[in-house]
Amino acid sequence: MSPGSSTRPDLLPGTLDMLVLKTLLFGPRHGHGIATSIRQTTEGVLTVDHGSLYPALHRLQRDGLISAKWEVPAGKSREYKCYRLTAAGRKHLVHQESKWDEIVRAITRVLRPAPEG
């Protein structure tokens, strides 16, 4: 977040991809459903605009981490492109979560150092 910018936090590179993969871990969703899930899960702290989400979805699909298929969900009258996590995506997510945990621990050590003694 830069001075004078909105109060929304900036995401670290790769974070959006990880959030999308984690969201799809719980089942297939269309793009708007992914964005809604992220917003709801983070209690509105993180909102993903479609200008960021769809390029990420295309990149994840190109990399074989998700698949996409046009479907008509139950109770709907039109087709939506539904995204699913692939086996490669699951493996990648585990790796990314491990890296994320390491980064969080490192940042926490800087922000909340152990008392010297």
List keywords for this structure.
Arc Repressor Mutant, subunit A, three-stranded antiparallel β-sheet, 4 helices, mainly alpha, 117 residues, 51% helix
* CATH homologous superfamily classification: Winged helix-like DNA-binding domain superfamily/Winged helix DNA-binding domain
Number of strands: 3
Q: Note poorly predicted spans.
A: 1-5
CATH third-level topology: Arc Repressor Mutant, subunit A
Q: What is the CATH C-level name? A: Mainly Alpha
* H/E series: HEHHEEH
The helix tally amounts to 4
Give the terminus-to-terminus CA distance: 34 Å
Task: Report the mean per-residue pLDDT as an integer.
Answer: 90
- Could you state the oligomeric state of the chains shown? single chain
Structural class by helix and strand composition: mainly alpha
Q: Domain count, please report it.
A: 1
Description:
With 117 residues, this protein is mainly alpha-helical. It has a single domain, classed as Arc Repressor Mutant, subunit A, CATH 1.10.10. The chain is 51% helix and 12% strand. It contains 4 helices and 3 strands. It has a 3-stranded antiparallel beta sheet with strand order 1-3-2. A hairpin with an 8-residue loop joins strand 2 and strand 3. Helix 1 (15-25) packs across helix 2 (31-41) and helix 1 (15-25) packs across helix 4 (87-111). The longest helix is centred in the C-terminal third of the chain and has 25 residues, at 87-111. 15% of the residues are buried. Mean pLDDT is 90; it is low at 1-5.
